[in-house]
């Protein structure tokens, strides 16, 4: 099986996961594309979103890892290539590594076909549509940190903590034109522990992610029928607002508000 990976360059959880997929899933790696979208102009909406991301980072990463993220970003700003970067991971393994502004580019779909890719592993926030979904022979897959169909959409671990969920999980599913609505290939249940913070939960969830991805790829290669799930409720969860995150930090737990799609 020939696998192409497109991902955000995030050194704490995502890059080690990508390295694990490369090393442990038994696929021929056609390459890794690092997602770097074109910078947009600052607007009020973008400022609110950036504030949300900064507050969420304080929850998703431990203090030590948050310091590592900051030093990592500063290093990238000055042109250094840290050892935990996707470029370095690829260089260590002799795998081609490129950058990509949008996964939906027609040229990227054409490249997938030219390379004869069987599966595209998609790990960016971009919603896919059109030709890129049809370009790989077996399809596009995504790793999601919930037990789909529950908690589709953005920042699922935050919303599960907000709702007081005790049963977390990892899902790898096929990607279709919807938002986390494709057929489920493999899942692992991860029970929440009393000492779990959101950061600790991410560590525990990602510790299962490579094995779930390996199972999903094996099922695709064998042609095992996918497990379809009911998405009749049509709900997904948006990026938390700054007030959502501050409220959580202050202990104001509430049922998350889903968005109809």
Q: Would you mind describing this structure in some detail?
A:
Helix content is 40%, strand content 19%. With 261 residues, the protein is of the alpha/beta class. It has one domain: Formyl transferase, N-terminal domain (Rossmann fold, 3-Layer(aba) Sandwich). It has a 7-stranded mixed sheet, with helices on both faces. The protein has a two-stranded antiparallel ribbon with strand order 8-9. Helix 1 runs parallel beside helix 8 and helix 2 runs parallel beside helix 9. The longest helix is centred in the C-terminal third of the chain and has 25 residues.
Tell me the layout of helices and strands:
Layout: E1 2-7, H1 14-24, E2 28-35, H2 44-60, H3 63-77, H4 86-93, E3 97-100, H5 106-115, E4 119-123, H6 131-134, E5 139-144, H7 156-162, E6 167-174, E7 184-191, H8 198-222, E8 235-236, H9 242-249, E9 259-260
Parallel strand pairs: 1-2, 1-4, 2-3, 4-5
Antiparallel strand pairs: 5-6, 6-7, 8-9
Helix pairs in contact: 1-8, 2-9
In short:
The chain is α/β, with parallel strands linked by helices and 261 residues long. The chain contains nine helices and nine strands. The protein is 40% helix and 19% strand.
The Cα radius of gyration reads 18 Å
Mean pLDDT: 91
**Contiguous uncertain segments of 5+ residues:** none
CATH architecture: 3-Layer(aba) Sandwich
Keywords summarizing the entry:
261 residues, alpha/beta, Rossmann fold, seven-stranded mixed sheet, two-stranded antiparallel ribbon, 9 helices
